[in-house]
Amino acid sequence: MSAYLKCIEKNCNKTMSSTSKAYVCPNCEGLLDVTYDFEIFDPEKIKQIFLKRRSSNSLLDLSGVWRYRELLPFCTDFSKVVSIQEGNTPVYEAPRCAKYVGLKKLNLKHQGLNPTGSFKDNGMTTGVTQANLLGSKIVACASTGNTSASMAAYAARAGIRAVIFIPDQQIGFGKLAQSLDYGATTIQLEGDFDESMRLVKEITLERDVYLLNSINPFRLEGQKAIIIELLCQQDWKVPDRIVVPGGNLGNSGSFGKAIKELYDLGFIEKMPMVTIIQAQRANPLYQTLIDRSPRLVKVEAQTLATAIKIGNPVSWKKAVRAMEWTRGWCDFVSEQEIADAKAIIGRDGIGCEPASATTVAGIRKLVQTKEIDPDEDVVAVLTGNLLKDPDYTVNYHQNSLYQEATYRNELLGKKDKIRSTFANGPIKVRADKEAILKVLGL
Question: How far apart are CA 399 and CA 418, in angstroms?
């Protein structure tokens, strides 16, 4: 099986070696895919191999990414694989969420139960493995938190130096703590994520530093495994729709690529619709689609869901392609809708970081607008762990969560309070048994 890089632009399609340190096409600066000449002739046999590996204790088989290595065969030297047993994330039934959104049933695939607490681990195992294959000594990324935490952990396992660019005061301590603890060099910059992204791209192009943001096509190969694993867990029963948060849009793009490859290879007979949900004031993809613009409509992102606080997403064309392939769509939800949906997810005993809750909030909105039928089989992807941003959760339940106030998208320099519709704050009681029993109604 051969692997190579290919430009996704239809009027270009340039190819180059899989060992090329390229993140965009040298001809047209288009995004790149890792492309394969697959030699899979019996998908049912491969499905049985995947299933059998779940009982194996081999390092590759314990990984919820490398277990599916026939579908990401760019690595031919498995001694270079860097893994922390990523993937293996559960699919939960969520009856309270289903009732809240108006569906008969709703499943949540929780990527926040990865080793570093987010879906980025699925991609970082393949991204850092490729860095290892290329002999890179330094890896770098710009991040609002989850990418940096994941890259730092995998780089530490590989013995590679990690350099992280983070926007000043725009990262949750739960995420920053991970990067610091895993030994990464952390550079805190003035400006937002998009400014950090611009600088890290320049540095990695000019110096011998390997970039591991989602513009890196090898990182997105690992994120394909989220879909492969989900379908294995569903015994290859394909849902009608898969809903995912929209930030830098690499995950959305990787989902589309996975679904298209599985369909073309005969693993599945239909393609689930990829539905992307963005925050209302961080919705460049939605604005681009509504305007029917051939170019991205950039926005100055503002949202408390910091993991998707991105106004200039690098992988937007891959996300558009995913929606075209699967007849999907993109929508947005407000800060209030995100906060309330997050609380409802918690009531199902699951929990997630704010960005993840956009999926449940978006499903509710789309059921109300009749875009989603109540009988649909829907899977929402939760991308991050509850403990990634505990301040958000505590503030919501203590009725003290605020967002930046705007008028016609201009910041007013004051704060708007988010209603704690489903607040469950601590109850202050004096240290007295009778007082406690009274509060408990016992």
Answer: 8
